[in-house]
Design a protein that fits this description.
By secondary structure, the protein is mainly α. The chain is 60% helix and 6% strand. The protein has eight helices and three strands. The longest helix is centred in the middle third of the chain and has 31 residues.
């Protein structure tokens, strides 16, 4: 397994301007935090303290970055590298447009959901590789990711819980089957 330093070197080779910056050092991140608090009516209040954010080739990290173990950092970096590749493929303006506009910035952000589905597939794949099937197929991870799509963390980007659950269960089912791990009952939606 390649370590964090190796992955950071790979990312820097692919994206020479890549760097990691503490969110607390960025006035822009403070402005975004304030804006998110306003448009989500205070429901997204953890942007500065818990969420890591990629803009262009700069990864703005929350304070938890310092305490993360190597595997968690690798999972995060692999997720964010997907967004960097999307940005390279779509261009910064195309990425910003898709992330913020179709159909609405809040409540029905199909473009953002599509971009995040791609990145969260990598999150799940990396979790499987680094933490094993029990972690990747856990009900806790399922709830956390589905809530991100359907809740205030990403501005209710795709509020159709059943469709997010279907996407998640299908992909995790493929991952877990490839690892010869049957789905545990908590993974099957009871709603």
């Amino acid at each position: 397994m390649a370590g964090v330093e190796s992955l950071l070197a790979e990312i820097s080779a692919e994206f020479p301007t890549f760097r990691v910056v503490p969110k607390s050092d960025s006035p822009l991140m403070h402005v975004i935090d304030h804006g998110l608090r306003v448009i989500t009516l205070g429901r997204q209040s953890r942007f500065l303290t818990e969420y890591h954010t990629i803009l262009g080739n700069v990864l703005f990290v929350a304070p938890s970055w310092v305490d993360m173990d190597d595997r968690d950092r690798i999972v995060l970096l692999r997720h964010e590298r997907v967004h960097m590749r999307q940005s390279k493929r779509l261009g910064m303006l195309g990425m910003a447009f898709l992330y913020l506009i179709p159909f609405f910035p809040i409540g029905l952000a199909y473009g953002r959901a599509k971009l995040e589905w791609e990145a969260y597939r990598e999150t799940l794949k990396a979790t499987m590789e680094l933490r094993g099937p029990q972690a990747a197929c856990s009900a806790t991870l399922r709830v956390r990711i589905i809530d991100r799509f359907t809740g205030p963390d990403y501005g209710w980007m795709w509020p159709f819980r059943k469709s997010v659950e279907s996407w998640y269960d299908e992909y995790v089912g493929e991952l877990c089957q490839s690892a010869s791990t049957p789905l545990s009952p908590p993974l099957i939606s009871s709603n």
